[in-house]
TrEMBL record:
Domain Acyl-CoA dehydrogenase/oxidase N-terminal: 7-119
Domain Acyl-CoA dehydrogenase/oxidase C-terminal: 235-383
Protein name (Swiss-Prot/TrEMBL): Acyl-CoA dehydrogenase family protein
Cofactor(s) of this protein: FAD
Transmembrane segments: none
Amino acid sequence: MRRTVFNEDHEAFRETIRAFIEAEVVPVYDEWFAAGQAPRDFYYKLGELGIFGINVPEEFGGAGLDTHKFEAVLYEETARAGVQFGGSGVHVLLALPYIKMLATDEQKKRYLPKFVSGEEMWALAMTEPGTGSDVAGMKTTAKLSEDGTHYVLNGAKTFITGGVHADRVIVCARTSAPTAEDRRFGISLFAVDTTSEGYSIGRKLDKLGLRTSDTAELAFVDVKVPVEDLLGEENKGFHYLGQNLPSERWGIAFGAYAQAKAAVRFAQQYVQERTVFGKPVAHFQNTKFELAACQAEVDAAEAVADRALEALDAGELTPAEAASAKLFCTEVAHRVIDRCLQLHGGYGYMNEYPIARLYADNRVNRIYGGTSEVMKSIIAKSMGL
């Protein structure tokens, strides 16, 4: 089946990214894996490559495009090489939409040029130790000072991807108590400077997968946040968060599909090289049937991921459609990667093989951005159930 989602510009970008990965990432990736994060200067290289500015207006140093298709190419190429670009995905997929949607012209002038260059890396802090999917239950507070010049931020966040290297973090905090009618009321968003007094990074969390992506606990003790760093209007944060969930869930869906596609590629190479009982593993009917079944699932996931991408670019991806794409693609990836690891035998369990890292990296896809169970609830609600 011929794909129609990408054009010549996307394919030229693919060649550039593939060459960049081979030259700048693959030779040092084992070092990143051992360290548990990509080095900070790597993000400057991504900035120089123009990756951070694709969807940023030209007046702020970007390319001025309005598409997620270049991000899609990135997902495919990093998965193909069995690597991750550290926490940079959060910078573009999660943080940028809030800046574009909510920042004033003055804020954009301050934030975006440094965003594009990689001088300021951004992260998003929603999750707290006691609240996961229940965002409305957050306890972090931001109280306006008596003179009205700043907010005083207190609380803690956890599972913050990019949290170690972040220079600014979009922090979700309560500026007002919830109302009897709406417990989601009262949340606001702030672009917090991580060098602020009282801001601290706790543990860099030891994760099962995504080892090169720094994930941290954050704490705020009387952090002064200038009123100029409030994003959007007070108390409307939950509404803003909901608007960006479809794009976040598309990203997870597309990334999962790309990982499944890469798993088939890794397994196909391995079974042709590995011999058992004097024959290549690829010679056995079971191997052929397993890989054929996996390829069929990847084909279906690709169609779902591409359709969601086209809808997202057209501004038509609904929350239910995004949930459906995420549920389907992440469940397919789970099955496919597991079967491809099995075809590697004992070597599939060794971290030196990309399939093992892929297996661990993939597991979180059915948890973050909303669990598979939450996705089913969203889909069922859209069906009138």
